[in-house]
Amino acid sequence: MSLRTLPLLFLNLGGEMLYILDQRLRAQNIPADKARKDEWTEVDRKRVLNDIISTMFNRKFIEELFKPQELYSKKALRTVYDRLAHASIMRLNQASMDKNIGTPLSLYGGYTQ
């Protein structure tokens, strides 16, 4: 593969992950005035997405990402996305994380690194 493929893969998978997280948080649909302490509100959803997007597009990280380099292994890529998902107040258990990144990663069936 090209030494310039990693940024495209990272941004594509990151976008997929954000879409999935957004859909899951929206599905809870709990009004702020009715939310219990352990429930997610619209403000929480926006905060989570903002935190993850801010981390994804951190200047130093993006500069490093765009340097010509080999693709990360699947294990390394999963670790990056695990840390990315937990860059916010949200915490995912292993099963949720597997669904969150496993689904987009499975779209890249030819990705064997």
From TrEMBL:
InterPro entries given in the database record: OSCP1
Gene Ontology cellular-component terms listed: cytoplasm; plasma membrane
Entry superkingdom: Eukaryota
Family annotation (Pfam families): Oscp1 (PF10188)
Name of protein: Protein OSCP1
Gene name tied to this protein: OSCP1
